[in-house]
Recover the amino acids of this structure.
């Protein structure tokens, strides 16, 4: 893209060569002459003097102490948001050519496809599925019978979606994720063996959710396991059967959530935390890393500690433990 096109996209003001051609975006430390980068955090202002980027996105109030003739500036209201928008634009351009259904994939009877879809080599899609518009499914994915996938979804290589699951619009699922495996449901018999409880429900993933690599989201025993609108899951997260995660909640890697727990809206859960089953966590709760949640939480706030407790209370306990030796 010409820099003047980028300026129009970002509603920015150019200082320098508006005809400069930009072929990509880069980090300020390693960007090349044909790339554009940005400065948003004051800690990165030191790189203004050393970056090799051809163009630099800066804020309207960024003060230039020593002007460089070899770099073109693009002033905007918010450099970080502008850079994100530019990244999305370049990514869309890269994916435009990915349209069509490979001859090396399998599609079951009764399955319906929308427009502008991409189905890569060695994808297996079962019977009576529905795949929406602008969907991209990469190599090695397995979509079982009667699955519904909405518009503008992306499934990266080797994702498995079990029978009957529902994926809404604008959902991203990264490699190795398993959606809809059986929940961990067993009953102990008199002879000590365990009898499997049939898992007859589904997983429903709502609009704008993103599922990280190697996440496992189990189907409900009865009803639905629900990943709410705008939920973001990092890699290697376990969501058990009948869990419900409220909209715009974000969860870091290696969190485990046991069955039938309900998590509210706009929560933030740190990596390696564990949440026992049948709990309720209210809206706007922040749980620190490696925290064990063994009781329901009914008040918004920050919770930390070996066993989840309000952060200030946890800090007092921590001080007491550190002074035990004295």
């Amino acid at each position: 893209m010409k820099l003047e096109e980028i300026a129009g996209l970002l509603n920015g003001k150019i200082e320098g060569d508006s005809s400069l051609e930009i072929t990509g975006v880069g980090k300020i430390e390693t960007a090349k002459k044909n790339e554009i980068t940005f400065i948003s955090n004051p800690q990165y202002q030191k790189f203004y003097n050393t970056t090799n980027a051809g163009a630099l996105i800066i804020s309207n109030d960024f003060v230039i102490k020593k002007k460089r003739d070899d770099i073109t500036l693009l002033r905007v209201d918010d450099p970080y948001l502008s850079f994100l928008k530019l990244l999305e634009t370049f990514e869309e351009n890269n994916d435009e050519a990915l349209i069509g259904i490979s001859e090396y994939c399998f599609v079951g009877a009764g399955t319906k496809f929308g427009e502008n879809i991409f189905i890569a080599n060695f994808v297996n899609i079962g019977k009576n599925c529905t795949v929406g518009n602008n969907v991209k499914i990469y190599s090695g994915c397995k979509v079982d019978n009667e699955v519904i996938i909405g518009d503008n979804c992306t499934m990266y290589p080797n994702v498995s979606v079990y029978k009957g699951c529902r994926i809404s619009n604008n959902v991203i699922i990264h490699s190795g994720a398993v959606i809809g495996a059986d929940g961990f449901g067993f009953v102990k018999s008199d002879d000590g063996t365990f009898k499997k409880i049939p898992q007859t429900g589904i997983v429903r993933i709502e609009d704008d959710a993103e599922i990280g690599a190697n996440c496992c989201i189990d189907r409900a025993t009865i009803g639905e396991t629900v990943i709410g609108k705008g939920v973001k899951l990092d890699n290697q997260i376990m969501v058990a059967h009948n869990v419900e995660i409220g909209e715009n909640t974000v969860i870091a890697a290696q969190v485990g959530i046991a069955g039938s727990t309900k998590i509210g809206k706009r929560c933030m859960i740190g990596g390696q935390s564990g949440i026992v089953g049948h709990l309720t966590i209210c809206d706007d709760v922040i749980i620190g890393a490696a925290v064990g949640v063994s009781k329901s939480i009914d008040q918004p706030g920050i919770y930390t500690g070996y066993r989840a407790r309000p952060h200030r209370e946890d800090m007092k306990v921590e001080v007491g433990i550190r002074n035990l030796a004295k």
